[in-house]
Specification:
- The chain is mainly beta.
- The chain folds into four domains: 2-109, Immunoglobulins (Immunoglobulin-like), CATH 2.60.40; 126-216, Immunoglobulins (Immunoglobulin-like), CATH 2.60.40.10; 223-309, Immunoglobulin-like (Sandwich), CATH 2.60.40.10; 314-344, no CATH class.
- Helices cover 12% and strands 40% of the residues.
- The protein contains four helices and 24 strands.
- It has helices spanning 2-11, 213-216, 314-322, 326-344, and strands at 16-17, 20-21, 26-30, 33-36, 46-52, 62-66, 70-75, 78-84, 89-95, 100-109, 126-128, 135-139, 149-157, 164-168, 174-179, 192-200, 203-211, 223-227, 230-234, 248-255, 273-276, 280-282, 288-295, 306-309.
- The strands form six sheets. Strands 3, 4, 6, 7, 9, 10, 13, 16 and 17 form a nine-stranded mixed sheet that branches. The chain has a four-stranded antiparallel sheet with strand order 11-12-15-14.
- The longest helix has 19 residues, at 326-344.
Length: 345
């Protein structure tokens, strides 16, 4: 019956009732949920929100309660409830016999960013995909000081109807979406419009993103295959095919890491960072090769670094590990050398 409520609100005067003004901006989040879009951030701010129980109950004596317990000091089908600061609530209407008739949850739009972490520069919700299948995920981080949840997800295409569905993941920190009508071989003209409404108590925060699949594609890690002293850079298994139609470019850098430290490609600097679409890279002993990939036809994000270091084979390591002193050299390693010489001749 929320549509009846909106019809009533449209004809109410946007004027003050007593010393407290009537809310001028409000909208329906979903059935039986009304959001007051007022500046409620200041301490002590109060607005009157008009509610209606339902068209069928016009002229009847109706009792209103907040949160199902607190009976409000007014009756009737059309009433004003006072919302103070960010304290909304569920307002339920009953018949004089105590029978449930209808309810409206009143929420307050929060203009600041408090429920999830982020900054305007870095963003709050981040979306990515590892190929052109029309599948993508969006992530965020909850603020530890607030109890938040996803209230609603809306997703559309800019000009076409589209057929995209999103599901909240089990960790509640991401959503998984699929554009069922997406064609990877056609030019993507329309943007995806994604709106996520986060709720904490009676506060609603709205986050809006607009992007194309090509804007958020981020390849998985490059795979490696060694052939002699050549490192073959292989496309991720998850990347779209054919590779000739979906080419990747590689960023390659060579670094030297201390033996006892973990090699971190993202932090280590290199004097030479190469950009190439070639898949053959010559190896050098003692050098770690760091590689990551990017869509070759779009300026989207780079994938994560993967690294490869040419390790000595077991045969090359044999004498190095066994012959630590002269006694060992005269023992097993000597026999190994003799055995190798016999096999040659």
């Amino acid at each position: 019956m929320i549509f009846l409520l909106i019809g009533v609100l449209a004809v109410l005067p946007h004027a003050a009732v007593g010393s407290i003004k009537v809310a001028e901006s409000y909208w329906t989040l979903k059935a039986n949920e009304l959001v007051v879009d007022e500046d409620m951030d200041k301490y002590g701010t109060k607005v009157l929100v008009p509610l209606v129980c339902g068209e069928a109950f016009e002229g009847q004596k109706i009792i209103w309660k907040r949160e199902g317990r607190e009976e409000l000091p007014f009756q009737g089908n059309r009433v004003f409830v006072m919302v103070e600061e960010r304290q909304g609530g569920t307002y339920t209407c009953y018949s004089t016999e105590g029978n449930y008739l209808n309810h409206t949850l009143v929420l307050v739009q929060w203009r600041y960013r408090k429920i999830i972490k982020g900054t305007p520069e870095r963003g709050y919700v981040h979306c990515s995909t590892n190929n052109y299948s029309g599948f993508f995920q969006c992530f965020w981080t909850w603020d530890e000081s607030r109890s938040g949840k996803v209230a609603l997800i809306k997703i559309t295409r800019s000009h076409t109807a589209g057929n995209t569905s999103c599901n909240l993941d089990s960790n509640a920190g991401s959503i998984t979406c699929q554009d069922h009508a997406f064609c990877p071989y056609a030019e993507e003209i329309d943007h995806i419009n994604l709106t996520i409404y986060f709720r904490s108590n009676y506060v609603i925060e709205t986050y809006y993103l607009q992007f194309r699949i090509s804007d958020i594609v981020r390849p998985d890690m490059v795979r490696f295959k060694m052939k002699s002293n050549i490192l073959e850079l292989q496309y991720p298994k998850s990347w779209s095919t054919p590779f000739s139609y979906f080419p990747l470019r590689f960023q390659v850098k060579e670094i030297r890491c201390q033996k006892k430290r973990i090699c971190d490609c993202s932090n280590q600097r290199s004097s030479n960072v190469d950009l190439t679409q070639e898949q053959q890279w010559p190896l050098k002993k003692g050098v770690t090769v760091c590689v990551r990939a990017q869509d070759g036809l779009a300026n989207s994000s780079w994938g994560e670094w993967n690294q490869f270091k040419w390790q000595k084979t077991a045969q090359e390591m044999h004498c190095h590990k066994s012959c630590c002193n002269m006694e060992k050299w005269m023992g097993p390693c000597y026999r190994t050398l003799i055995s190798d010489k016999r096999s040659i001749y």
